[in-house]
Every structure is written in C-alpha cells, then in structure tokens.
Amino acid sequence: MTVNEVKETIRAGNQAARESMTILEQVGAEADSAAGLARLTIRGSQDRDAQDGLRILESLGREVELALRRIDAAVDHADAYLKTLG
Predict the structure, then answer these.
(1) pTM for this structure?
(2) Phi, psi of 47 (to 5 degrees)
(3) Element (DSSP H or E) covering residue 1
C-alpha cells in the first residue's frame, strides 16, 4: 500500500466516522423523545419493569454522548496522522 493509498483510506474512514456521528445524533434525539414520552406514560407507576425501562432510555443519551466524543477524538487523531504523512 502506498502512502497515498493510506491517506485515502484514512480520509474514507474519517468520512464514515463523521456520517456515523450524524446518525448517532439522530438516535440520541429519538431516545430523548422516547424517554420523554415514557416519563409521561408511566408517571406515578410503581411497575418495576417500566421504571427500569425508563432508566435505560435515559442512560442511552449519556452513552450516545460518550460515543460521539470517542468518534470525534478518533477523527482528530486520524487527521493528525494525515498531517504527519504530508
């Protein structure tokens, strides 16, 4: 593999990573919406499964945020490596 081929592969990976970030942002927004609806639906409920499900939905937003940060850092590192390749 030539240096130019490596650069193109890294650029393609960065593009795919950026696209995945867009999708994850949409997933996060949908999860927030679903959690809001779930909160309204189970308000006052003592059902353990319902409460557990709501906690899972609420934690999804945090997981999405962590994944977005990791992807962003990976793209930054790949960009830095591209610069060192010239």
Answers:
(1) 0.79
(2) -65, 120
(3) none
